[in-house]
TrEMBL record:
Residues the record marks as active site: H37 (proton donor)
Source organism of this protein record: Acinetobacter gerneri DSM 14967 = CIP 107464 = MTCC 9824
Compartments reported by the entry: Cytoplasm
Annotated binding of (R)-pantoate, by residue: Q61, Q154
InterPro entries in the record: Cyt_trans-like, Pantoate_ligase, Pantoate_ligase_C, Rossmann-like_a/b/a_fold
Quaternary structure, from the entry: Homodimer.
EC number annotated for this UniProt entry: 6.3.2.1
GO molecular function terms attached to this record: ATP binding; pantoate-beta-alanine ligase activity
Pathway given in the UniProt record: Cofactor biosynthesis; (R)-pantothenate biosynthesis; (R)-pantothenate from (R)-pantoate and beta-alanine: step 1/1
Annotated family: Belongs to the pantothenate synthetase family.
Keyword ATP-binding included in the entry's annotation: yes
Protein name per Swiss-Prot or TrEMBL: Pantothenate synthetase
Length: 281
């Protein structure tokens, strides 16, 4: 496995694969890797000839009071994990390499779907994601790109971006990887205290209960309210609990497939999760 830290170095490494029309798979990450990330790499390995993983903590997607400075950076350990799952090239550029060579004037805004859900509490977040993903797509020029359904809204934003701008890339959504107790794996889980870590799986438990309640015919609004009460009782400060169609349209009845979204804070840690509930009449 190679590690490249410059755009030029990455191009030099990828040019032979491009010349021989090999399928390039790309997994963008911010590092501090866990099984969730590694499953994206495993998916890429199945479909592609060459697998590139980027590790870049993107400053422009963090708000002023968010955890950019403290975000865990563990490149050496990440590299070991990536080598084990068959990654070919790690691209780990500096902020300077990505943004430093000239002032950036271009912004990318993917419209309404970025102002909803996480976009409400994190203004500008998805613009920052859209810019860095576009830059990385142009740098790596992959055939396939892999994103986790854990960040369902992000996946929807990237799919929209690729469609709107005719980027010649297949975007693949990969299911959420969870701990045994149901907690969706996340680099931010490391911020949880021991006690908070024990409480955190309540999020997934409430989603699974909601799924059963919906299949038992309870009204969507009642089900959402019950999630709110259960999370609040468990000590969470709820940011949002929402129901959307898989394309993120608002829905108020369970008469089609629905995705239930939760964002909630436990102490200082903001956790997100979602569950797709199938409708079958
Ligand atoms: P991050 O490093 O948090 O930016 O995540 C990089 C990629 O890994 C994103 O596409 C995430 O959606 C995905 N990812 C993170 N955690 C999980 C998980 N538990 N299951 C599936 N994908 C995940």
């Amino acid at each position: 496995m190679k590690t490249e830290t410059t755009i030029q170095g990455l191009s030099a490494s990828l040019n032979p694969a491009r010349a021989s029309r090999k399928m390039i798979g790309f997994v963008p990450t911010m590092g501090n890797l866990h099984e969730g990330h590694l499953n994206l790499v495993r998916e890429a390995r199945k479909l592609c000839d060459v697998v590139v993983v980027s590790i870049f903590v993107n400053p422009i997607q963090f708000g002023p009071n968010e955890d950019f400075d403290n975000y865990p950076r563990t490149l050496e350990h990440d590299s070991h994990l990536l080598a084990e799952v068959g990654c070919d090239i790690v691209f780990a550029p500096s902020v300077e390499q990505m943004y430093g060579n000239h002032p950036r004037l271009t912004n990318i805004s993917v419209g309404e779907i970025t102002n909803d859900l996480c976009g409400l509490q994190r203004p500008g977040h998805f613009d920052g994601v859209a810019v860095v993903v576009t830059k990385l797509f142009n740098i790596v020029q992959p055939n396939y790109a892999f994103f986790g359904q854990k960040d369902f809204q992000q996946l929807a934003v990237i799919k929209q971006l690729v469609r709107d701008l005719n980027m010649p890339i297949d975007v693949i959504g990969v299911p959420i990887t969870r701990a045994e107790d149901g907690l969706a794996l996340s680099s931010r889980n490391g911020y949880l205290s021991e006690q908070e870590r024990k409480t955190a799986p309540t999020i997934y438990q409430t989603l699974k209960t909601a799924e059963t309640d919906l299949h038992n015919g309870q009204a969507l609004s009642d089900v959402l309210e019950k999630i709110r009460v259960n999370l609040t009782d468990a000590g969470f400060v709820v940011d949002y609990i929402e129901a959307r169609s898989p394309s993120l349209q608002k829905i108020d009845q369970f008469d089609q497939d629905v995705v239930l979204f939760i964002a909630a804070k436990l102490g200082k840690t903001r956790l997100i999760d979602n569950l797709q509930v199938k409708y079958s009449s």
